[in-house]
Design goal:
This protein is mainly β. It is built from one helix and eight strands, in the order H-E-E-E-E-E-E-E-E. The protein has an eight-stranded antiparallel barrel.
């Protein structure tokens, strides 16, 4: 019972302050159709016009690009509540029109930026691509600004 209560209280504490996912993250993971991958860069940009800080509700544009070439591989959008992030994405290659899906991510490690704002330094994500008949998971680590 104590462990269960601790988990509930931990979730409440994490979700009691605003977390902004804005930033760049270096990602690696495994896709059940395409196999293992590394070196993708996830960029989340806040859409302030559709975000409500006082309610801890944020909206983002989502871009996933190849770190080596800079080529955008997926475009999409995302929303967050507390430490949870929901994602919709679509492959930019017209030949891969069925390569789109949804994902759910959680900030698995939370830090503060130089202004004292809470932000994730690590994200764990699971995704599902129904028409592409695939799913996968990945871990993304925040790329620190210099």
């Amino acid at each position: 019972m104590q462990k269960f209560l601790f988990l509930i209280l931990s979730g409440l504490i994490v979700n009691s302050f605003a977390i902004d996912f804005t930033g760049k993250y270096l990602c690696s993971g495994y896709d059940t159709k395409d196999g293992a991958y590394t070196g993708d860069v996830l960029t989340l940009k806040l859409d302030a016009g559709h975000s409500y800080e006082k309610r801890d509700l944020y909206s983002y544009s989502f871009i996933l690009s190849d770190a080596a070439t800079g080529k955008i591989v997926y475009n999409g959008s995302a929303v967050s509540v507390g430490s949870n992030l929901s994602i919709h994405f679509k492959n930019t290659d017209p030949k891969k029109s069925t390569d789109e899906g949804v994902g759910l991510a959680v900030a698995s490690k939370i830090t503060r930026d130089k202004n004292g704002n809470f932000m994730p330094s690590k994200i764990q994500k699971f995704y599902y691509e129904k028409d592409y008949t695939s799913d996968g998971s990945e871990e993304c680590t925040q790329i620190k600004e210099k």
